[in-house]
Structures are given as C-alpha cells and as structure tokens.
Design a protein that fits this description.
By secondary structure, the protein is an alpha/beta fold. It is 41% helix and 17% strand. It has an eight-stranded mixed sheet with strand order 1-2-4-3-5-6-7-8, with helices on both faces.
Length: 283
C-alpha cells in the first residue's frame, strides 16, 4: 500500500490523528513533526518512501488533527507529549522502528528512545537538536522566559505565533523562496489561530528547557546504544544551526551528516534528496 491513508487512534481516551502508508511487515518508520506544523509536513516525503517502509506520521497532542484538550485537563509538556506518542506506537503495533525527528519531534522521539532503546532501529534527525551548540541566538527570548517565566516574558514570545513569523520560518535561508509552497505554512497558521492554541504553544516554549536539561541523557544514549544516525540538516536554519548536526559524530563516530542549502523546513525544498539519503541510510 503506497497510497496514504488518514486514521485516528484512541490512545487511552486521547484522539491521535496519523497518516499511514506502506506495506505491513515492511521496516517501520515513525515520522515526528515540529513546531508549528503537523504530520502534513511529510506530505511530499511519504510517497517517496512508502514502497520500502511502513510509515506512520502522527500529529502530536495539541497539533494538527489530534486532540487539543484544555490546559486544565492536559499539561502541555514534552514528557506528556512523548507519553502519548509512545502509547500510540503500542496501540498500533509499532514495536521496532526507525524515527525521523524534526524540531519538537526530536525531544519527543529521543524520549521514546530513552524509555525503550530496544525499539529504535535508527534515527534520522532533520534539524532535530540534542546539543546546546546547536541552539542559535534565536533562542534568546525563549531562554529569558525559562529564566524568568514572568507575564511580560511570556507575552514577548507571542511574536513567534504570528502568520508573518510562520512564513519567515518556512522561507528564511531558502535560496529561492518561490520554491516554497504556501500550503504548509497556511495550514500551520490555521491551526495556530484556533482558540487556546496560543497558550498551548507558549507553555511548550517554556517547557523546552526540559529538553535542554535532557541533552546529556540523550547524548549518553547515543554513546551507549550507538543507534545508526543520519543528521540531514537545512544548514541555514535560524534556530538549529549546523554545529548541532556535526555534534552527533562526537557521541557516535559513525553518524552520517548531510548539510543542505536550505532552511528550517528542509522538506519543502529537498524532499527528494532527503528521501534518497534515507533509502541509502536504512538500506
């Protein structure tokens, strides 16, 4: 089955929407998206890999078509997001799989690896950071909120949630912005505009410090278990810079690093190149 189907799983009462393609029994690949996107960011990649892999691309809790419960009933932390996604893999029978992690998908996927290292067959990190040297100066206002979670510092982060900033994230560092489809960014902005979504995202900005605190644990996992790692990186990313890709080699000398002349959302311009790299890597 190379066509994509669109499904919803009941994960202990939490509705998780996901895209699925490929043949049951083929090597499994879990695609984990980032901010401010959803599984739709993989719309060009999935058809390029579905003949070889059984692919699942969920929308993280609070994103896309998955449930976005109130902040009073669900605490928006990366620990809780990872718990839901881990349970999703169990519910749908994803027992051993490679992970493609991007942006927020990285701390989500790496938590899965820490919890069950035996389930992870490989890691493709596309601008998915696990090293402090991979954080650019663009994180400065968010770091200020970590240090002082005052209403003023929280309010200062709302600029990250505007349609203009979403478009900038998609086009910054892309040699030809006309090569970037407006479809993904417009859908992201639709989801960001939902009532309550802004505070969900601000909560996650604040909790991102928990990911940085786990970087040493992630790095210890890379050293101890030595999962195959492919770091394929938009080298002009304004948030996660190339030293974060190169750092994987420090903990796993066999890590493969591929830098692409594009920005944060590398799949928008380089889906075919990334698919070819994944095929070679997971062959």
């Amino acid at each position: 089955m190379t066509s994509t189907t669109y499904r919803t799983a009941d994960v202990d009462g939490f509705k998780v929407f996901y895209r699925e393609a490929g043949r049951a029994g083929a090597p499994k690949l879990l695609l984990l998206h980032g901010f401010p996107s959803a599984g739709h960011m993989f719309r060009d990649l999935i058809p390029l890999l579905a003949d070889k892999f059984h692919i699942v691309a969920p929308d993280l809790p609070g994103f896309g078509q998955s449930d976005m419960p109130s902040r009073e009933t669900f605490s928006y932390t990366f620990d809780n997001i990872a718990r839901v996604i881990e349970r999703l893999t169990e519910v749908i029978g994803f027992d051993r799989f490679a992970i493609y992690v991007f942006d927020y998908g990285a701390p989500t996927g790496f938590r899965l690896a820490l919890s069950h290292p035996e389930r992870i067959t490989g890691i493709i990190s596309q601008n998915g950071n696990a090293y402090e040297e991979g954080l650019s100066d663009g994180w400065t206002p968010i770091k200020a909120y970590w240090q002082d979670p005052s209403p003023a510092n929280r309010e200062a982060l709302r600029g990250f949630l505007t349609p203009e900033t979403t478009r900038w994230q998609y086009t910054h560092g892309v040699p030809d912005p006309a090569a970037v489809s407006p479809d993904g960014q417009n859908l992201d902005n639709f989801y960001l505009a939902r009532p309550g979504s802004d505070d969900v995202q601000l909560d996650l900005f604040g909790d991102y410090k928990s990911n940085v605190a786990l970087y040493p644990a992630f790095q210890d996992y890379f050293r101890k278990h030595k999962p195959p790692i492919l770091a394929v990186w938009g080298k002009n990313d304004p948030f996660f810079i190339p030293p974060g890709a190169e750092a994987y080699k420090r903990d796993n000398p066999n890590a493969v690093v591929k830098l692409l002349d594009t920005g944060h959302f590398a799949l928008e311009t380089h889906a075919r190149e990334i698919a070819e790299a994944i095929r070679a890597f997971l062959a």
